[in-house]
Amino acid sequence: MTEVLFVAAAKPQFGVLADSVRKFNALGARVHLAATFHLESSAEEVAALELAGLHQLPRSVAHRSQALRRKARTSPLGMRVWMQSKSDSWLRDRARKADVMVALDPGAVYTVWRLAQYNRSAAAMFGLAPGLKAVEGLTSQGGSVQRRSVIPPLDAVARDVRRSVDGLPAAVMRTATARPVMRSTVGARLWRTAVTAPGVPTRVRAATSRYVAEGMQWAGRTSGAAIALADAASKIPDLGLKAQLLDEGVMKEITKGLSPRHLDKAVAAQLAFADREFAAGRTEKAATALDRALFLDFHRVLHIDQLSSPLAKDAEGFVAPLYRSKAMQALSRPQGRKTPYKKAPTDRPLRLLVTTSANDNFLHHILDHFGDHPGVELRFLDLAASKHLKRIAWAGRRMLEDRLSGGTSDYQEEVERLFRPYLDWADTVFLDWSVGPAGMLTTIDPGDTRIVVRLHSYEAFTRWPHMTDFSRIDDLVFVAPHVKDLAVSLVPQLRGDQAPRFHIVDNAMDLSGFARPKPAEARFNLGLIGISQVAKDPKWAVDVLERVRRHDERYRG
Q: Helix, strand or coil for residue 287?
C-alpha cells in the first residue's frame, strides 16, 4: 500500500481533488490530507473525498511565542504555513510514513519541502498530476521508492499571476523559491524543472524564472540562477524577451567574475532580435540589441579579468557568429572618405593634434618630442576633460544607431559640431587607443585631415574595434606584431581593400631612471611591475621564481 500525504494551505477545487483522490485510490494508494484552511467550513465537500485520513493543521500562531508571532507577521505565506505546522505531531507522523508528499498549492510547497528533509525516501511533488505520476511509478516498480522532486509552476501559480495584472505574487513566489529551498540540490533541481513546464503562459514563465533565479542567487547558486533563466528562455518564442532573460542569466555569472556558460546563446539571441528590428526599419531597437551583443561578447570578465581569453584559442571562430548577423554586416560596411588627406605642408609647421580620453600613459614622450620640434605645431586634447566631448566619445549605442540608419543622425550632427573645428585645424590627428573615441571620430568624414590611430593590446579584447570604421583611418599603429595579427583576425574591415596602412612601433619607454649603481648580486633580484590586472599574474611570477631557484638559489623576488 502506497502512503500519500496531501498538504494544502488554501481551499482546493474540490471537484478536481475528489476525482484525483479516486485515481490515487485506484492505484492502491491511501491518501491523507493535512490542511491549514478551515476544514469545518467545507465539511460536506471534504466528506466526499474518500480520504484515508484528514487533519486540521493550526490555522495561525496566535498561541505561540511573541517572537514567533512577530516573525510570522513579516514572513511570506509559505513560511507562515510551516511555522504553524512544523510542531504538529499528526503531520510529522504521516510525513515519516509517506511514500509520496504532494503540495496542492504554492503556500504548501515550503512545508512539503521541509518535511521531505526528514523523509528522504519520499517523493516530494507540487500538483496532483505530478503526484499521480509518482504513485504510478512506485506501482510499476513494485513499491520500490525512488526519490524524485518536480515542482512546475502549474495552474496555481498561473492563476495567481493572472490575478495580479500590474505585479506578481511576490509573497507566494518568494516563499516557494526561498533561500533554504534553493540551497538544497533537490529544491534547486525541482524549480529548474518548473520553468520549462509545458503549457505555461510566456509572461508567467518569464516571471517564474526570475523568482527562481533570485532564490538561487540568494542561496549562492549563481550558475543555477543563470541556468534557470536560460532554460526558461529556451521555451519562450518572443525574441526580445528571450534575449532579455538570457542576458540577465549571463550577467548574473559575469558580475561574480565567472565565465558565463550560456554566452553564445545570449549573444545569438541579441543578434537575432537586432536583425529582426533592423529588417523592419526599427534602427533604435536594433542598435540597442547589437550594442548589448557586443557588450556581452567582449566583456572584460571574459577577456581581461581572466588568465586567458576565448580569443586565444580561436579568434576568428569566436567572432564568426557575430559577423553572420545582417545588422553587424551593415555596421561593418566601410563608408570611406570623400577626399584623400593632404600631404604635410612645406611652407609652415605641421599642425599635429594628439588626442586621447583620460589615458595618456603612453603619450608623454611623444608630447615631449613634438612639443620641441621646429617643424610641428602641437596641440593636445583630452576628450575626458570636456563633458560634451566625453559624452559623445563613449556613446556606443548612438554610434551604432547612426551607422545602422545609413544617413545623417542627431549623433553625427553633434560629432560634427563638437569635433569638426579640431579636424579643420589639424593636418594630422594622432588618436591614442582604438576605443570609443575612434568609433566616434570615424562617424564623420575626416575631410583632408590625416587620421592616425594607435591600437594597444587592450583594445583587441574589447568591442570598440568592431564599432570603428577603419576605412576613415589612414594609418593604424600596432605596438607589437602579435597584436596586429590578433586584431586583423578579429576585424574583417582590417582585411579589406579599404583597410588603413599598418605600422608596428613599440611604445616609447624611458628606462634611464632605472640606471643607478647597484651591487653585483642585484642581477639576481626579480621584480613584478603592476598587479592591478589579472593578466599581470603574480602567481605566474612566483612560479618563475620557484623554477629559477631550482637551478640557482641566489635568485630572490
A: helix
Query: Nearest-CA neighbor of 500 among 327, 322, 318, 337?
Result: 337
What is the three-class DSSP state of 317?
A: helix
Residue closest to 444 by CA, chosen among 477, 476, 409: 409
User: Cα angle at 37 between 31 and 40, to 5 degrees?
Assistant: 85
pTM above 0.85, yes or no: no
Q: Where are the alpha helices (DSSP H) in 127-198?
A: 128-140, 155-163, 170-176, 179-183, 185-194
Question: Residue 449 is which amino acid?
Answer: T
Contact 225, 252 (CB under 8 A): yes
Task: Tell me how far CA of residue 397 lies from CA of 411, 436, 443, in angstroms.
Answer: 10, 11, 13
**24 near 52, Cβ under 8 Å?**
no
CA–CA distance, 465 with 484 (Å, rounded to integer): 12
C-alpha cell at position 175: 516563499
Please report, as a single letter, which amino acid is at residue 326: K
- The DSSP line for 447-487 is TT-EEEEEE-HHHHTSSGGGGS-GGG-SEEEESSHHHHHHH
| Coil, strand or helix at 207 | helix
Residue with cell 567582449: 298
Give the pLDDT of the chain (557 residues) as one tens digit per residue: 899 999 999 999 998 899 999 999 999 999 999 999 999 888 888 888 999 999 999 998 888 888 888 888 887 788 889 999 988 999 999 999 999 999 999 889 889 988 988 888 899 999 898 899 999 988 776 544 444 443 333 343 334 333 332 333 444 444 444 455 555 555 556 566 667 777 778 888 888 788 778 777 777 778 888 988 999 999 999 999 999 999 999 999 999 888 999 999 999 999 999 999 999 999 999 999 999 999 999 999 999 888 788 998 899 999 999 999 999 999 999 999 999 999 999 999 999 999 999 999 999 999 999 999 999 999 999 999 999 999 999 999 999 999 999 888 999 999 999 999 999 999 999 999 999 999 999 999 999 999 999 999 999 999 999 999 999 999 999 999 999 999 999 999 999 889 999 999 998 877 788 788 888 888 899 888 777 667 677 888 888 999 999 999 999 88
